[in-house]
Structures are given as C-alpha cells and as structure tokens.
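sry for the spam today, last one i promise. struct tokens for design, 193 residues
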C-alpha cells in the first residue's frame, strides 16, 4: 500500500471510514450506462464520487476509464498505487489512488468492479456494499456484440466465465427496459446511503 493508503487505513489496516460501493455483474449488463445515469442524477452530492478505473485497454466511447499500458500498470501496482486491482477478460483493471483518498475523507465511492475482486475489496476496505446489475443471457450477448470489440466466440466465452458472488448483494438491478428505470433504482439506492 502507498503511504497515502497506509495513512487512510484504520486500526485493522482497512481503508476507511468511507464506503466503497462496487457495481458488479456480467459483461453487457449495462453497468457503465447505469453508472453514468446515477452520476448525472447525483451530481450535486459532494459526498458521492464515481471512480474512473484504470484499464489496460485504449479508451473508447463505451466506457469512461483511464487507459494505462501494461508496463505502467505493472509499475503502479508495484508502487502500491492501486487500492484494488484485478484481472479479467485478458485485461488488468484497478481503482486509482483518488479512491483511497476519498474513502479516507469519509466519502462514498461508487466503482464499476468485478465479482472476482469482491473478496479482495472486503479485505482492503472497512465498508463495502455490493450492487449486482444483470440481464438475460441473450440480451448480454447482444450488448457485448454491439460493442464490436470481440468475436461471437469470445462473447460466449466471456459470459461463461463470470464467477459467482461471494455473498448476496445489497441491491440487484435487472437492467432490461428503459435506462431510466434501472438508473433510477441505482441512483435511489446510492442517494439513500
């Protein structure tokens, strides 16, 4: 952990006192779309921050993230600059140092996460809530294919390797209709924290 993260860690070594809300679910569930909706709805809330992940993939129109090449990611990881990181779908993902700063300041940080990283998040952060966004498999496959980043075979393989949740989520959002419907559910949950 970096010096800032160590300073933010509580007595038990976990980052706090703020709350990390991890939004997880299968690829194509619409997590980024719902996060963008909630971010707009909660723009006036200074106590809620929406994290921008670091990903070893070029930026594109489908997701608001910070693109990092593999060497820079490995270096930042070795320096302890990521309060949470994981591997998925052949890429490296992380939450940046600002997440640890916001958590240490007592804020709520909302992040697009991974089910594979939930146990590590619970080990590193004093307070974690889990939101599971999902949709039927055929809708997930269609949404992933529409991105144009993967072949049909890669899409099916991605959907088959999604790990199970380690515990029931604090909120489940079935994202099948209008963005506003599921978006209001997420924004209402976050606004009530």
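last one done:
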């Amino acid at each position: 952990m970096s010096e800032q993260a160590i300073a933010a860690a509580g007595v038990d070594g976990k980052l706090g006192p703020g709350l990390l809300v991890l939004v997880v679910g299968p690829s194509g569930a619409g997590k980024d779309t719902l996060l963008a909706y909630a971010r707009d709805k909660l723009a006036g809330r200074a106590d809620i921050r929406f994290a921008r992940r670091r990903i070893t993939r070029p930026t594109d129109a489908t997701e608001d993230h910070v693109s990092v090449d593999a060497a820079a990611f490995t270096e930042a990881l070795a320096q302890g600059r990521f309060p949470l990181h994981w591997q998925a779908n052949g890429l490296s993902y992380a939450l940046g140092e600002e997440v640890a700063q916001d958590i240490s300041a007592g804020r709520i940080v909302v992040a697009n996460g991974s089910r594979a990283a939930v146990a590590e998040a619970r080990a590193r952060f004093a307070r974690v809530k889990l939101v599971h966004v999902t949709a039927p498999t055929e809708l997930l496959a269609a949404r992933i294919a529409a991105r144009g980043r993967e072949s049909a075979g890669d899409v099916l393989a991605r959907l088959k390797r999604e790990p199970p949740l380690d515990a029931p989520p604090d909120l489940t959002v079935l994202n099948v209709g209008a963005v506003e419907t599921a978006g209001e559910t997420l924004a209402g949950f976050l606004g009530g924290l």
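Helices lie at 3-8, 31-41, 70-78, 97-104, 118-124, 137-147, 152-160, 179-191. ok im logging off now
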